[in-house]
């Protein structure tokens, strides 16, 4: 028996449906469905998608998590038929805020939907952050001062891109990495974001690249805020001036 087959038996039992009823809904024979529940065979991808939609449980949970350990009513239902595990609390009843470490931040791209990976992360609790899913992510670079390489941004999970608010900052988890930017606007293809450091130009993130969106709630910094600009104003001004000169030169060449 596999986790997948155990989950199928459990879900059908919760609904008190017969194998024949579920098989009819999936447009397959009862015998074929029974083999999936018994773990004798594995369904092809098209049937796996149908099973996921039928039980309203995401494929990643169906095949990798023993959902018998989590009350279905406590799971958080998200758009696009995605379901995530319940918010965890510590012994004091406060939400557990998982901390993604700096050195392993890229590992989050592979483990963000893996319950075992999330369970392995260290966590903290902040009493003023409740009623939501929160996670702390590392940020770096100089595009969003005063935050620096010693900063963690604590974000609240955003269920839909329609919840984005113009002018607020968000941490976009994409297939390429983590991007902390200020939201500008969006269209059907992607979202336009910008940096608070004017040296960097605004750009678009395609929706097809976005895995998760977390809205800024607070930050944790092991360094004194404001040190980003210490001793650097002349250097920054030089680069801004150079950028302006390059743009002027391009304009002159285009006019010739």
What does this 3D model show about the protein?
The protein has 256 residues and is an alpha+beta fold. The protein folds into two domains: 3-75, Orthogonal Bundle (434 Repressor (Amino-terminal Domain)), CATH 1.10.260; 97-229, Ribbon (Umud Fragment, subunit A). Helix content is 32%, strand content 23%. The strands form two sheets. Strands 4-3-5-6-11-7-8-9-10 form a nine-stranded mixed beta sheet, with no helix packed on it. A two-stranded antiparallel sheet has the order 1-2. The chain is elongated and about 75 Å long. 17% of the residues are buried. Mean pLDDT is 80; it is low at 227-235.
Structural category: alpha+beta
Summed over residues and divided by their number, the pLDDT gives a mean of 80
CATH topology description of the largest domain = Umud Fragment, subunit A
Amino- and carboxy-terminal Cα gap: 73 Å
What's the helical proportion of residues? 25-40%
Strand content: 15-25%
Q: Give a quick account of the main beta sheet: strands, pairing sense, barrel closure.
A: 9 strands, mixed
Query: How are the strands of the biggest sheet laid out side by side?
Result: 4-3-5-6-11-7-8-9-10
Oligomer: single chain
In angstroms, what is the radius of gyration?
23 Å
Compute the number of structural domains.
Answer: 2
Question: Which CATH architecture of the largest domain?
Answer: Ribbon
Poorly predicted parts: 227-235
């Amino acid at each position: 028996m596999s986790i997948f087959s155990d989950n199928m038996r459990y879900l059908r039992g919760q609904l008190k449906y017969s194998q024949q009823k579920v098989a009819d809904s999936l447009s397959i024979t009862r015998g074929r469905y029974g083999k999936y529940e018994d773990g004798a065979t594995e369904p092809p991808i098209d049937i796996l998608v149908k099973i996921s939609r039928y039980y309203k449980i995401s494929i990643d949970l169906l095949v990798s998590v023993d959902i018998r350990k989590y009350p279905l009513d406590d799971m958080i239902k998200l758009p696009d038929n995605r379901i995530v595990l319940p918010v965890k609390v510590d012994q004091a009843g406060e939400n557990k805020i998982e901390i993604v470490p700096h050195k392993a931040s890229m590992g989050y791209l592979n483990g963000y939907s893996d319950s075992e990976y999330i369970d392995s992360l260290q966590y903290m609790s902040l009493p003023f952050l409740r009623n939501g899913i929160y996670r702390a992510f590392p940020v770096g670079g100089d595009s969003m001062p005063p935050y620096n390489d010693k900063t963690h941004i604590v974000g609240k999970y955003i269920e839909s891109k329609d919840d984005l608010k113009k002018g607020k900052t968000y941490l976009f988890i994409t297939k390429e990495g983590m991007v902390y930017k200020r939201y500008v606007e969006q269209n059907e293809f992607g979202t336009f974001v910008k940096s608070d450091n004017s040296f960097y130009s605004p750009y678009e993130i395609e929706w097809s690249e976005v895995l998760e969106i977390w809205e800024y709630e607070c930050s944790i910094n092991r360094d004194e805020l404001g040190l980003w600009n210490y001793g650097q104003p002349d250097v920054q001004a030089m680069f801004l001036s150079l950028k302006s000169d390059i743009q002027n030169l391009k304009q002159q060449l285009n006019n010739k």
